[in-house]
Amino acid sequence: MTDIDLTTLPPNFYPTYETCPSISPLCPVKATTLGYSPNLPVNVFLAVGFGLFGIITLLTGLWKKTWGFSTTVAAGCILECVGYIGRVLLSENAWNADAFKMQIVAIVLGPTLVCVGLYLTLRHIVISLNPEMSRIAPRLYPIFFVPADVSCLVIQAIGGGVAAAAGRDNYDILKHGNRIIMAGIVLQVLVLGAFGGLAGDYLVRVRKGFRQNPGMEGSALWKDGKFRGFLWAMGGAYAALLIRCVYRIAEMAGGWGNHIMQHESSFVVLESFMVLIACGLLACAAPGVLFPEMSHDQRMKNMGKGRQQGGVDVESGAGEKTAGTGASASPSDTERRPGTGEGI
Length: 344
What we know:
Elements: H1 40-64, H2 67-92, H3 97-129, H4 140-166, H5 171-212, H6 219-223, H7 225-253, H8 264-284, H9 287-290, H10 296-301, H11 303-307, E1 308-309, E2 312-313
Antiparallel strand pairs: 1-2
């Protein structure tokens, strides 16, 4: 940014990211959108933490071949890391316009990608436990929730871009950007709520079914300690992300520069650490380790069980047709000729 001679400014001068090169008597930190210089040690810790969890998630995904989950969660962690690097730069100069735009866009978008990873787990949990206990076909979970979450991502990205481009002096454009971000976050809360409702309903039904019939399909996995730990980790990550989104609604409701937005402690606790906890749980309780059924190799190994049980596609609930006949598979279709190993 070009240096400005503050002593020659007109009497009606108003501090903005375009007119203030750094903190000075005419450009106090209180006049910035955040109203404070971010705490340097805290934001360094957060940037390192998100970067570390992103690397762990990516390496675990490559090792266990949980491609979709690891890619989206690692991308979310990397965005968060970039956002907190921006806040580190703001701690050195609260009027750094580029750093301000960086932290707005990255910190708004990062958690949305983390949510995508969370949504991808439910389908595999239902297929591996007991698909018949689900109120909807397992394949419909990602078909609904992933596009819905991507819609939240796009809306918030548009809002963040508009707000970042507006600066502090284009207040009308800034308000429009704020409203767009708000719409994306509200939609994200609704999507998270629907996901939590369906996941909770399924787990309650499964628990009740296993209590009534201990030998029911999936009971061995349900009792597995690693799998139970995985469920608790997913639940903790979900709760942390939901708290973060609710806080974001309250923070954005008052517009840019409101008293909630300018309270650093609440931002660090309800935004930064909530997302860090979620990313940490998803990294340390990786599905490929605690829930191997979600890994690519294990799914390929269990394809017969995962895709077809008794002639029924467990992902869609529809009867599978035998090739060239148009009829549903029957027990006789799977009988073997003695000594040939071929279906009749």
